[in-house]
């Protein structure tokens, strides 16, 4: 099949997706300071500086009060709401010793064991189909 | 004349790097995933490609939101990995192939793909892990690299249709390259997974099967959806299938032959897949 150059987006494209936050220009602008701080954590010295004085480090990057509160609360959904992008937030989560499954559990309100079990169950179900 | 031997497609979950370092390949959790790689290694051992053209997405190692190219082509002599900030092992460097990179860039821009060019470019786990999986015993990589990064991070993302067209333009560039190299095309990332939001942990094996079934003979079928619809079906990070679609495009418009497939849920939060396509 070939696609016409002016193929329109399919209907329903604007419908929201449950539990999914597209990181668009609005979010990227809102979250710039928070994501810039997270990007700095590629360097070990910056991770150590954050751990040594978290508030001072956050201030250096000019986090908004909403971003500051989300970081203090270790609340990933609140960080996303404040413009955080998961690829960058993962670096912050790493400082707290959290991997993507810990982060997934937190966002879905499950325990980490429940979250892992949910993924394994999906694998078993896919294997049966 | 240069020859494209085919395409190698695989997920690039960061945790795979940790599993390799720990030697967990035969652990029950990891074995179904790592069992997908002996056919990849045998094929590469038999074909011995000289260059890899690899489509991937950066995860905040080389690119930040200050400057976020939609399509970026590496033209460096060397590509290093660096600390990604979350305890991953440091991966080996790649030798570049700047002459081929500039040829591809010239051809792409001539073809009206106005790409960003990078003479200095760090490559992250999304690029390194597929090579670690394919060449587990290599002291240094036995092939040169042309990396092509696609923005899958900040919307608007390029459409699947556009990524397929980009890949096909890369194919035309490779066909007009006068070198004698054997070239393997690589697409990394996916398949369905979602790390962020209340829907974290979402996977969709039906959609993944549709994508894998379409890849060889009818990649256009995946391209009718907008990127938002792809996210709906495959998760926020499942949209990394864009890298696979571009890589498929670089194999050319003719139907390809699927020679290997492995699919397993879960690796970390991801429905992990590995495929080989050969050109006719």
Automatic annotation (TrEMBL), chain A:
<protein>
    <submittedName>
        <fullName>Protocatechuate 4,5-dioxygenase subunit alpha</fullName>
    </submittedName>
</protein>
<dbReference type="Pfam" id="PF07746">
    <property type="entry name" value="LigA"/>
</dbReference>
<dbReference type="InterPro" id="IPR036622">
    <property type="entry name" value="LigA_sf"/>
</dbReference>
<dbReference type="InterPro" id="IPR011986">
    <property type="entry name" value="Xdiol_dOase_LigA"/>
</dbReference>
<feature type="domain" description="Extradiol ring-cleavage dioxygenase LigAB LigA subunit">
    <location>
        <begin position="34"/>
        <end position="119"/>
    </location>
</feature>
């Amino acid at each position: 099949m070939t696609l016409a150059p002016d193929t329109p987006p399919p209907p329903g494209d604007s419908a929201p997706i449950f539990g999914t936050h597209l990181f668009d220009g609005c979010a990227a602008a809102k979250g710039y300071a928070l994501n810039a701080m997270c990007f700095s954590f590629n360097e070990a010295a910056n991770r150590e500086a954050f751990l040594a004085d978290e508030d001072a480090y956050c201030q250096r990057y000019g986090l908004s009060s909403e971003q500051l509160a989300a970081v203090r609360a270790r609340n990933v959904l609140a960080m996303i709401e404040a413009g955080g992008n998961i690829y960058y937030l993962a670096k912050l989560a790493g400082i707290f010793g959290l991997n993507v499954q810990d982060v997934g559990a937190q966002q879905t309100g499950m325990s980490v064991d429940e979250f892992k079990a949910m993924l394994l169950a999906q694998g078993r179900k896919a294997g049966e189909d | 004349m240069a020859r494209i031997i085919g395409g190698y497609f695989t997920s690039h979950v960061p945790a795979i790097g940790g599993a390799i370092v720990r030697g967990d390949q035969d652990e029950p959790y990891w074995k179904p995933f790592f069992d997908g790689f002996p056919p990849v290694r045998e094929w590469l051992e038999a074909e011995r490609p000289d260059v890899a053209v690899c489509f991937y997405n950066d995860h905040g190692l080389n690119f930040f939101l200050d400057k976020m190219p939609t399509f970026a082509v590496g033209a460096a002599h060397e590509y290093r990995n660096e600390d990604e900030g979350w305890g991953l092992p440091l991966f080996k460097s790649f030798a570049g192939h700047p002459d081929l990179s500039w040829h591809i860039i010239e051809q792409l821009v001539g073809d009206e793909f106005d790409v960003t060019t990078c003479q200095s470019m760090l490559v992250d786990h999304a690029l390194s892990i597929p090579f670690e999986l394919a060449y587990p015993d290599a002291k240094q990589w036995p092939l040169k690299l042309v990396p092509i990064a696609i923005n899958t991070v900040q919307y608007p993302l390029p459409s699947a249709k556009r990524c397929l067209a980009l890949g096909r333009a890369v194919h035309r560039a490779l066909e007009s390259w006068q070198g004698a190299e054997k070239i393997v095309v690589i697409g990394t990332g996916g398949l369905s997974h979602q790390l962020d939001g209340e829907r974290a942990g979402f996977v969709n094996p039906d959609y993944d099967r549709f994508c894998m079934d379409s890849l060889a003979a009818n990649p256009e079928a995946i391209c009718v959806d907008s990127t938002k619809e792809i996210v709906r079906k495959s998760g926020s990070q499942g949209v990394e299938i864009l890298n696979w679609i571009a890589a498929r495009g670089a194999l050319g418009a003719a139907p390809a032959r699927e020679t290997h497939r492995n699919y397993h849920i879960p690796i970390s939060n991801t429905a992990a897949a590995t495929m080989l396509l050969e050109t006719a």
